[in-house]
Structure prediction request, 261 residues.
Amino acid sequence: MRTIKILNYTLLTVFLLMIGITGCGKKENPVPKQETKKEQSNMTAPSEELSGKGKEIFYLESKTTGLKCADCHSDGTNSGDAHYKYFADILNADKRPSTYFGMYKGDDVSKNAGGADLCWKNFLKMDNSLDADQISALNAYYEIAGKGKEVKEYKFTTIALPKPDKVKLKDDQTKIAGLTGDVDKGEKLFNETCAFCHSDKSNVKHVPNLFKKFEGNLKSITFHIRIGSKHMPYFPYEVINDQNIADVTAFIFKKNNMTIQ
Prediction:
């Protein structure tokens, strides 16, 4: 009996060793490398050709207004002028949670090229809306320009959307009329924002030079800044506040040798 038990233990040991050897020799499925994810990411990244077409659209000048997207929005290379700080940049604009004061959210942001289609029609006055290929090209350029940058969401307050709030506008006009404008600060603000369109050096079409034939008043200045007009954009409260409007109004009227009305 003792001999049989020893034999059984010996056979069991050999069997277990064989299992261990077989297990050691078994080939494992290769663990995916991190480079694989990068390769997959590169496959979905926009092509340089598509991005190049988007850049052409971004810098395309409107024959109607003389304006282009790049006149207001920075792509990271044209941000030297001070007036770009008053507008949202385009870096990763197609990936923002919302844009155009919340008008576009989620998937609708990229479907409208970050809201560019509205600017295209309202401010550049192009004949047609952006088509699907143009939107894809602009989105590609946003992504290339914003590579390595965080996705920023701009949240502003405006009375221009979803429709002009005329009641709030009147309240603003009354409040601003009670403020004392600073001419020097108004001149600085004018040069950074208004002068791009409303000066002798402007290439923008159908825009009045405010120092040659100015027929406005404080109410009209407030209206244009808060609501916008034709291809003039409106400015949110976070960008130009009530005191800023009082300042720029003081400068415009002094430059025209007029008394504020």
